[in-house]
């Protein structure tokens, strides 16, 4: 059974990143813990986009009654939110994590490159 667009983004409703009012935002006080929590939100956006895309195309294949336009707008919104989140993480969290020595140089596995 397909879930509604609201259900696909349920993971985004309760973010793991909730800055401590005493410590403030990561880009204000350069707290590595807060920066890490912010960076850890990226998979939630990626997962929500992936789930919504699967539901969208599954509904199209099944000839579902959901309006295609509403589903497409929902996908566009999730993609835009993911992009905004990526920019915030890149601008606010990654520099703090890099200075703290807690950021990897690359996500690309060395064995994934062709010889």
Structure description:
This protein is 63% helix and 0% strand. Helix 4 runs antiparallel to helix 6. The chain has a domain at 30-100. The protein is mainly α. The chain contains 6 helices and no strands.
How are the SSEs placed, and which strands pair?
Blueprint: H1 5-8, H2 10-13, H3 26-29, H4 32-39, H5 42-62, H6 68-99
- Overall number of strands: 0
User: H/E element string?
Assistant: HHHHHH
Q: Poorly predicted ranges (pLDDT <50, ≥5 residues)?
A: none
**Share of residues in helices:** 55-70%
Radius of gyration: 18 Å
Number of helices: 6
Roughly what fraction of the amino acids lie in strands? Answer: under 5%
**How would you sum up the major sheet?**
none
Distance between the termini: 44 Å
Averaging pLDDT over every residue, what do you get? 77
Class computed from helices, strands and strand pairing: mainly alpha
Shape: elongated
Short summary of the structure?
The chain has helices spanning about 5-10, 10-15, 25-30, 30-40, 40-60, 70-100. It has about 120 residues and is mainly alpha-helical.
